Amino acid sequence: MAAARIRLVGSYADILRVPGSRSFVAAGWLGRMLRSTTGIATILLVSAQSGSFALAGAVSGATVVGLAIGGPLWSRAVDARGQRRVLPLTLTAAAAAAAALVLVVVCAAPVFTWFIAAFLLGAASIDVGSLVRARWRSAVSSPQQRHTSLALESVSDELVFVVGPPLVTLIAASAGTVVGFATGVLVGVGGGFWLWSQRSTTPRVHTQPGGLPLPRRSWRPPAGVLGLLPIYLGVGTVFAAIDLAAVGLGTETGQPWLTGVILAVFSVGSVLAGFAFGPISAGWTPATRVLVSAVAYAVVVPSLLMFQSPGVLASLIFVAGLVTTPVLISGTSLITSRVDESRLTEALTWPSIGLALGVTFGGALAGIVVDDGSAFSAYLISTVAAVAVGVYGVLSSLVNRRHGHPEPVAAVTAGSDATAGQNP
Fold this sequence. Notes:
This protein has 17 helices and no strands.
């Protein structure tokens, strides 16, 4: 058992010995802070100024719409022009949009300007996680190492959402909502510029023979991505339902601390699973990872409907966290194994967009169900979404086998590279 624990840690230590990797991992984690805190920071800012949580939620939702539209465009530009040229533009645009949102809200400008500024903030925000994953793709060569790096980045995704929103909330409560909002923006933009400054690990720009730029691409997601988006939509829906149920349960029981406990154990389970799943599944094929993790997700999450005792529920939430990150890691791993290098950054942006849309849809749907029932009713939404993820994972596996999609040979065997013996 001790040897197994050492090997799990060692797998990450192996890839973090790659020159420059620790710096771009740290910068990428800080750069994620902008996206992870924008939602809650916007809600706190708008609700404090307007006194309406409904308006605050709607304005926050405008950032998600902007993110869904702008995210792929920025990532496509990165693939075509490179991180060095695009990052300063998107970071400057995001900072300007954030300042505009604060200004129109604090100065009580017409409400429609709040929505415009929020939309522009979302549209200007690039997916820093996809930039870091693209750097890993260039920095390591074996499928096992790449899978472990994806697991590490999924853990980073989870950690930034564990740390970022509570930190901004605490700062907003103690120093004011504007300061809380600004903290997330400044940390995120600062991390982005730190990543931009690391020239040695910047992925090269893919061109045609002779150095000519690649032809203009279709607006559609790259092949191999669209088929996995329903999984991310489903997981995002589960996220929203679990969050809303936790808030409702704390309110209904008169124990608001219970909300924090439930969300914390879910996050801890997700982080632990991310650390373990990467090395453990490094020798599996990408399609096998998706199948196993999706089925486990469909089996575990519905158990939340069966028990209403807070203690038992917290334990089940922890287990639900354990099966969540593997789904995200597996989907990303499958995408990277099938997408052409020239569209990698764009491809890796779509999962986060799928999650954001799922959270938006799931939050609205779970809110309707809770209003008509109780906090536990939200778990009905999480159950349906999780089962849908499992069914889709099975169907996807059957289609893959029927059409004979090839798997990378090196991914089938554990190999003898540094990690064999490689998710957010």
